[in-house]
């Protein structure tokens, strides 16, 4: 415990850009580590990129590496170093369900005990928390998350997002956008307090920077209304007014809002546009039929009504933007609701954090990339107040 406490104090006192260096030095002194490296998952969830190495040198595939297996399983993974008596320990760096990357620590064989691995896992979690705080003051970790240059629209969208996953006793959320480096109009947002979980999926019309600016205004308007403590119908109405005052109906945003009461599973939804909501309950997969209401900003002073339904423990809900179910194959065939239901079924054994990326990979194999719209998937697993 003394070693862990010393490491924690050192990391919390470190300069934002020096977290990895401080952890490396502390693990060398405390555990005899001869090699320490932090990898962060890139925006497209294709590789693990080393932090502070310069460029993309040393990037590892998520799909075919020991580090990638630890990232996918969210369990420590070890591998014997060739021609030596040392062991590499690959430890998930995850904050409240949001999978950031992997911390690799090389230890002597005799120090590689279960107790030490448990302590190193706690160091990895601490490092993840400190990275999220440090990102306010340094670009180092955001730079490590990219293997290509982001478009300006994509930069704006990723800065607006809450994360890619979140877990609590009652639920788990996972989300992903594609194309990750050139997204423009699609966006997701969530927030939870002690009473409820609120989610929003938005799709601003248009392309490029104009779509990103439109979506940015819509998300900020929804957040402003949500933080005033009002219901989702009024959140939609206030965001609608903000958009109409700016664009006078010339541009609008498709939005789907969902609020779930954490104690009861009672859900409210406002369907103001194209995003779809699907539910998997046991082996049954169906689209939740919601009353279609006007997109935000289309007309002046639109009224919105929240519909209600019940979410049961074990339910999985999936949001999909029109870039998913309206995607076209090279032959011009629509992906459609049937293929979307099959994709939900095919990912039913995956945790919520992994579902969106798996579904979007399936979509990528299907669609014509030359005509592809941006696409968004959000997955919500509901456990209820008793948890898993």
Automatic annotation (TrEMBL):
What molecular functions are annotated in GO for this chain?
Answer: phosphatase activity
Task: List the keywords (alphabetical).
Answer: Hydrolase
Domain PPM-type phosphatase: where?
A: 170-382
User: Could you confirm whether the keyword Hydrolase appears in this record?
Assistant: yes
List, alphabetically, the InterPro entries matched: Bact_Sigma-Reg, PPM-type-like_dom_sf, PPM-type_phosphatase-like_dom
Which Gene3D superfamilies does this one have? PPM-type phosphatase domain
Renumbered residue ranges of the record's region Disordered: 58-83
- Name the record gives this protein: Serine/threonine-protein phosphatase
Recorded source organism is: Streptomyces montanisoli
Taxonomic lineage: Bacteria, Bacillati, Actinomycetota, Actinomycetes, Kitasatosporales
